[in-house]
Amino acid sequence: MIKEKFDVSIVGGGIVRLATAYKLQITFPKLKIVVLEKEDSLAFHQTGRNSGVIHSGLYYKPNSFRAKNCVEGRKQLVKFAIENKIDHEICGKIVLAKDEKESERLKKLKINGEQNGLIGLRILNKSQLNEVEPYAGGISALYVPESGIINYKQTTEKLAEKIISINSNSKIICSCKVLDFDNSFLYTSIGKISSKNNIFCSGLFSDRLAKKDNLITNMKIVGFRGDYFKLTKEAKHKVKHLIYPVPNPEFPFLGVHLTRMTDGNIECGPNAVYTFKREGYKKYSFSLKDMLDSLFFIGTIRLFINHWKFGLNEYKRSFSKRLFLRDLQTLLPSLNIEDIEKAIVDFVDVMGCSLILTTGGTGPSKRDVTPEATISVCDKILPGFGEQMRNISLKYVPTAILSRQTAGIRSNSLVINLPGAPKSIDETLYELFPAVPYCIDLINGPYITTDKKLINSFRPRHAVRE
Ligand SMILES: Cc1cc2nc3c(=O)[nH]c(=O)nc-3n(C[C@H](O)[C@H](O)[C@H](O)COP(=O)(O)OP(=O)(O)OC[C@H]3O[C@@H](n4cnc5c(N)ncnc54)[C@H](O)[C@@H]3O)c2cc1C
To answer: What is the pLDDT of residues 298-352, one digit of tens each?
Structure first.
């Protein structure tokens, strides 16, 4: 049990609760607030996995709460980002019309946006569009200058930091799952916590916590997973803004779009596929409870009946890169299959592989792009692997100096880009591999043992498990 007593507890560590906690803390600096998050870091779920777009408020019904909230929230978010040096950019958005019917809808969207207080909205004809976004398809577009991008994880962490700097008695506690509560206590995975008031904003579990509080609602969370591709380094210059299709009012999702990210990458997606598990991010993630809960819910049944064709297409697209590409080409016709990367991302993010070896295409010629693909999907580069591979190969051929092999870490995976020729792979692999098991330990992968007759892997003594 945590002995301290808090004035307010806020359950969940995404952007909504941290923003709530921050607003409370600046309004009532003496309030002792505790934020409880079940994962070991903040922004682990939706907040840390979204497209990072600062929405302008273009689509919402004028005067509705959502419209006012979005426009006012955007202004406050951008101000907060500037004051706190959070990675963001007001890069603007292009909504592309592919035919006359969509062109007409653009005019309505412009009026809608203006009623919501957006400034600088402009309808672009084909030649104006070519100037602003030269590779975009479509016959006309709506330019939305106030849309932008931001790093929401960084924003969440900064909000947490600010809360503690205003009141050092407030606390942000991770790895603490709220299991139950009554009028006096929250019962959590780390014991009882006393709080006078509780605020629940627990993302994909909001409905279950509301039910525990005896709140009768006719709503349920039904999980949809978004699949994204990334544009290769070579294709990035084709996208200058956020590029969106005109939303089809008959469908509940926006459709695939191209999003610039604050780390310089460009994401294509998401498609929206029903998932059998809340907070399940892999194609085959499954929870019986979540599945039954959603499939017996009238809202899901209605959604499936009304939009089964749309849903089927989304499913097909989730398994076919070519279909995904076909939709993207309506926004960016010159995009080709080589422009989008997914293989490595799929191995890491979908299949959860801890070690990925790629070979070939590491020379200086135009077609050699595996080092670029590796670098663009990795969070951290490990140049030592490439240097060592070149050192080894130089013993055999002087042209090894032209090779650009590399390695890096994406999430909990080590990706090593080996040379192409089987002989060179054989020469390098045995000398590289001794460092691999310990590297995988360090990124929280499985503990790998080797056959010492073949490869004697090295670990510092403290890391050796008997
Ligand atoms: C694919 C996708 C793309 C999106 N793109 C954008 C975008 O570009 N721009 C935009 O503005 N919005 C976007 N959104 C929406 C946006 O991400 C969400 O609205 C926002 O992140 C919701 O924040 P949250 O704090 O409510 O939820 P979350 O970020 O999911 O946080 C909820 C937290 O509560 C915790 N929690 C749950 N139960 C408990 C418990 N019992 N005890 C303790 N902790 C608990 C969870 O672990 C989680 O960390 C996108 C959403 C998706 C899914």
So the answer is: 888 888 888 777 777 776 766 667 778 888 888 999 887 677 777 777 788 777 8
Whether residues 288 and 377 share a domain: the answer is no
Distances (CA, A) of 365 to 236, 369, 370, 402, 403: 20, 9, 11, 10, 10
Q: Which of 10, 202, 225 to mutate to test the pocket of ligand 1 (most atoms within 8 A of CB)?
A: 202
Atom number, ligand 1, closest to the C-alpha of residue 36: 43
The per-residue pLDDT for range 20-47, each reduced to its tens digit, is: 999 999 999 999 999 999 999 999 999 9
Contact, 405 vs 390, CB < 8 A?
A: yes
Query: DSSP character for 339?
Result: G
pLDDT at 318: 65
Q: Can you give the length of the chain in residues?
A: 466
Coil vs helix vs strand at 261: coil
Last residue of a domain, one of 302, 330, 358: 330
Average pLDDT of adjacent 10-residue blocks, the chain of 466 residues: 88 94 97 96 92 94 96 98 97 96 96 97 96 94 97 96 97 96 93 95 92 89 85 87 90 83 87 84 84 88 80 69 82 81 76 85 78 82 94 90 92 90 85 93 92 88 86
* Closest ligand 1 atom to 177 CA: 42
From the CA of 42, how far away is ligand 1's center (Å)?
A: 10
Q: Are 127 and 232 members of one domain? A: yes
Cα(339)–Cα(231) distance, integer angstroms: 5
Instruction: Tell me which of 330, 359, 384 is where a domain ends.
Output: 330
Atom of ligand 1 nearest to the CA of 42: 49
Q: Which atom of ligand 1 is nearest to the CA of 15?
A: 25
Q: Is the CB of residue 403 less than 8 Å from the CB of residue 393?
A: yes
Angstrom distance (rounded) from CA 346 to CA 350: 5
Q: Which residues line ligand 1 (CB under 6 A)?
A: 11-17, 36-39, 44-47, 50-53, 55, 177-178, 201-205, 226, 270
197 Cα: distance to centroid of ligand 1 (angstroms) = 22
Ligand 1 pocket test, candidate residues 41, 44, 46, most atoms within 8 A of CB: 46
